[in-house]
Amino acid sequence: MTKAEIASEIARTTGIDKAVVVTVVEQFMTVVKDSLANGENVYLRGFGSFIIKQRAEKTARNISKNTTLLVPAHNIPAFKPAPVFKEEVAKLG
Questions:
Q1: At 93, is the pLDDT very low, low, confident or very high (cuts 50, 70, 90)?
Q2: Quick check: 3 and 25 in contact, CB under 8 A?
Q3: pTM of the predicted model as reported, rounded to 2 decimal places
Q4: Are 82 and 47 in contact (CB under 8 A)?
Q5: Gap between the Cα atoms of 50 and 85, Å rounded
Q6: How far apart are alpha carbons 78 and 51 in whole angstroms?
Q7: DSSP string, 46-79
Q8: Which of 50, 62, 64, 86 is most deeply buried (CB count within 10 A of its CB)?
């Protein structure tokens, strides 16, 4: 499902204008992104958490050139679903 499809579905089910819904969805994504960029996790009860995971420094290999390189420690965004979310998805399978 794309962002446009999400906005269309929300607009259809709530009766809110699609342009307004698109603005809200885009602003939600901006707030989540900015929060993670500032080192803050985002917790949505019953849905899940957008968190920052730390990756340790590691040595990687470029097998085509037969060389090694050092990948520095870095942070990556991640999503951790809430137990309720996981249970609902598990019912589908």
A1: low
A2: yes
A3: 0.80
A4: yes
A5: 14
A6: 5
A7: TTEEEEEEEEPPEEEEETTTTEEEEEPPEEEEEE
A8: 50
